[in-house]
Write a structure and sequence with these properties.
Largest sheet: 8 strands, mixed
Strand content: 35-45%
Number of helices: 6
Oligomer: single chain
Number of strands: 24
Number of domains: 4
Amino acid sequence: MKYSISIAALTLTLFGQAVLAGDLITLTDKQRQSLGITTSPLPNKQSGEVAGLPAQVVIPSGQLFVVSTPLPAMIEQTLVGVGDSVKKGQVLARLQSAAVSEAQRGLLQASVQNQLAQQNLVRDESLWNDGIISESRYRATQGMATETKAALSERKQMLRIAGMSDGAIAQIQSGKNINSLLTVTAPIDGVILEKSAEAGQRLDAATALFKIAKLDPLALEVQAPVALARDIKSGAAIQISAYSASGKVTAVGRSLSGSNQTVLVRALILHGSDNLRAGQFVEATIETGSNGMSQWNIPNSAIARLAGRAVVYVANEKGFRTQSVTVVSEGAQNSVITGQLKGDERIAVQGVSALKSASMGIGGGE
């Protein structure tokens, strides 16, 4: 069955049945031009790739830190803002806290009590060895020395949590530099993503001040259709072509999301992280195990739907033939297809609606 069509014929009401794959639509070069039909060669073959998968750029959980106030305090000064790069140990903010002064005083008291208890232990141990005091008195002194030592360690640990260095703690034990100043420092080399407080604010303990992240490498959370997820393996290569980024799959989910019935695939971006931003939505391509079928990534405009099947229109010397294909994955702009194609064909990428109308019988006759 062959069809000869014109512009006027294509505007008529649709009639007739869809033609079978391989049927020929004859067109002259002039008709092609008038109908706005353009062709393009098939792109290079892909073997075992799933393209056009929706994904979101995220920060790996081990690279994200929240810096909080260790004790109730008032912010005296903030030294960094959102987007600033910081180094580990860099001061981010200075705070005034009465709780810090109290903790320092408690440390000093615990240090004095521990020193006295240790001296008593040395004295009573000598007296017990000489038989001057009873064993019960010696054991009581020994227990008191253990308790005061533990209390001193607890006070030191409280000040370490508050951000105080061991050198500063040692000075406090010597009775020097007791004050209410509290400094907040960066736990890693990274970038400030969020800043939650400003100078002059009074904050409770454990109130978040900054969110800091290491942004290289970044990660991806990909939503893969369940029919395709079975071919995706941990370690598979992943590409974000639009941003020149690539990496590898680190995990494939074992359950489906309730809303869209997809499988969550996690990946790590090893190259091109600088081209991406946390929270950004992108399209990703993942290599899958070879299934022996060649695939092509073509524009969505090249695909038509006829009688429940997907087709492309392959150009030849007489016009176009209709070729059935299977859509492996569909993206916003391009889709991946398989089919009985050699790979050297040219397919229609514009004006496909006119060819589809002809396939459905407009202006046709035998």
